[in-house]
Backbone:
């Protein structure tokens, strides 16, 4: 289903942002990145701004990229040049500006780990500013850009820090196994659970990127073929007490504030893998994702299926799942 907005503007220079007559724009104003994490549930009455800045200024270590650069193009280029940093974030859809809003993450790395600087237009002050990532309140898929700063800053460029020094992050489940299977020179972990440094020396950012792409292609729908917004839900963090009540020994790990459990596991236990509502479907291979299986799913079908999943998990486990996808 198509939705529309009152006005759509492509911003192609910082100057345009500065001279924009904000009061004349139909409100509210929202900034669109690649749109890959948004669910438009109805027509939007205001202005949608797309920051189409695609410049690139770089030294070896620091790459400053316009907010509209496709994030995976950055990952691909860094890997091709043998630079470490974003390789575990390969194939995440979306653009660089949104990467810093959402603190995108995958396979043990979050973008905050490689952010060096953020340039943004401050609507409150009417000027461009540099924001230190350390002040952005980064957490699991969140930042102040989504909370107390919402609507204030429009990110125009992001500076990432890269490294020539090898720094593979391999501890997220599945990476080592995939590397072994691909015979990329990584030997299995030895008995005392220490991996061989020598074997890791043969790794390159490109090898990790290819491995991550392989893992993602096995589990996640290809956005070019099947519409989805990636993970539809956040993985819930529960207290020790709630965790102990869950039967079936769920996979889990400790994080600040409690124990994180994969929403995918909870959804699977509720029997929702592959369940459909009209054109919307809980993706059979990764039930954390809701797909537009027919290409014709209505927002109501997606929201209806979301509600069914939330209700089922709450009823069985007393845990409330929260969507990761932003509803507009
Ligand atoms: N699992 C099941 N059943 C399934 C699939 C998974 O029980 O059908 C359990 C397994 O135990 C598995 C665990 O869920 O070990 C974790 O699965 P996975 O590694 O696929 O990760 P996830 O927690 O489901 C998160 C991110 C993904 C990211 C992966 C890898 C969130 C909301 N999602 O998913 O991000 O790619 O980790 O790091 O944190 C996205 O944000 O759009 C996204 C895809």
Residues:
């Amino acid at each position: 289903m198509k939705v529309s907005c009152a006005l759509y503007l492509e911003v192609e220079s910082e100057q345009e942002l500065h001279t924009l007559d904000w009061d004349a724009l139909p409100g509210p104003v929202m900034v669109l990145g690649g749109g890959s994490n948004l669910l438009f549930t109805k027509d939007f009455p205001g202005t949608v701004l797309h920051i189409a800045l695609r410049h690139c200024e770089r030294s070896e270590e620091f790459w400053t990229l316009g907010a509209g650069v496709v994030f995976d193009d950055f990952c691909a280029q860094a890997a091709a040049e043998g630079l470490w940093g974003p390789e575990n974030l390969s194939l995440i859809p979306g653009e660089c500006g949104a990467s810093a809003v959402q603190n995108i993450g995958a396979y043990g790395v979050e973008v905050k780990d490689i952010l060096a600087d953020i340039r943004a237009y401050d609507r409150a002050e009417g000027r461009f500013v540099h924001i230190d990532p350390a002040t952005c309140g980064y957490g699991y898929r969140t930042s102040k850009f989504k909370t107390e700063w919402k609507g204030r800053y429009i990110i125009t460029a992001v500076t990432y820090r890269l490294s020539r020094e090898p720094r593979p992050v391999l501890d997220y489940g599945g990476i080592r196994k995939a590397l072994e299977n691909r015979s990329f020179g990584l030997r299995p972990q030895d008995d005392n659970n220490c991996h061989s440094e020598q074997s890791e020396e043969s790794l390159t950012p490109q090898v990790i990127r290819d491995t991550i792409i392989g893992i993602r292609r096995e589990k996640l729908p290809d956005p070019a073929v099947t519409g989805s917004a990636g993970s539809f839900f956040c993985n819930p963090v529960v207290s020790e007490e709630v965790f102990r009540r869950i039967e079936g020994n769920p996979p889990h790990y400790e994080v600040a504030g409690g124990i994180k459990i994969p929403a995918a596991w909870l959804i699977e236990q509720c029997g929702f893998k592959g369940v459909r509502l009209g054109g919307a479907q809980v993706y059979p291979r990764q039930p954390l994702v809701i797909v537009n299986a027919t290409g014709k799913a209505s927002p109501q079908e997606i929201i209806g299926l979301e509600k069914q999943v939330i209700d089922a998990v709450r009823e069985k486990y007393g845990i409330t799942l929260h969507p990761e996808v932003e509803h507009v």
Summary: The first helix runs from residue 14 to 19. The two ends are 14 Å apart (CA to CA). Confidence is low (pLDDT under 50) at residues 190-198.
